[in-house]
Design goal:
Elements (H helix, E strand, L loop, with lengths): L1 H32 L2 H5 L1 E7 L2 E6 L2 H9 L1 H11 L5 E6 L4
Parallel strand pairs: 2-3
Antiparallel strand pairs: 1-2
Length: 94
C-alpha cells in the first residue's frame, strides 16, 4: 500500500512541476517583449491550441497590448513555436 502512495505522490509532483514550468517559460518570454509597466498589469492564464491567454487588469494596458497584438505574436512565435494568437481579457489578477 505504501508503494502505491509513493507512486501517486511522485506522479502528482511531476505534473505540478511541468505545469509550473510551462507558465514560467511563458512569463520569461513575455519579459523580453513587454515593458515593466505592462508586465505589472498582466497574468498569463493559459497556452492551449496555439492561443496564449493573457489577463489584463488595466484598460489602458489592454488597449496598448491590443494595438501591439500582431507585433507580439510575431516576436513570441520566434521564441515559442506554435503560437498563433493572443487572447486578451480584462479582469482581476488574483
Amino acid at each position: 500500500m505504501e508503494i502505491i502512495k509513493d507512486t501517486i505522490n511522485a506522479v502528482m509532483q511531476g505534473l505540478a512541476q511541468k505545469k509550473k514550468a510551462a507558465g514560467d517559460d511563458t512569463r520569461e518570454l513575455l519579459k523580453k517583449v513587454l515593458t515593466k509597466n505592462e508586465l505589472a498589469h498582466i497574468k498569463c492564464n493559459y497556452f492551449r491550441k496555439g492561443i496564449l491567454g493573457i489577463l489584463v487588469d488595466s484598460s489602458s494596458v489592454y488597449y496598448k497590448l491590443n494595438l501591439r497584438k500582431n507585433e507580439l505574436i510575431e516576436k513570441l512565435s520566434k521564441e515559442l513555436s506554435g503560437i498563433e494568437d493572443i487572447s486578451l481579457r480584462m479582469g482581476d489578477l488574483r
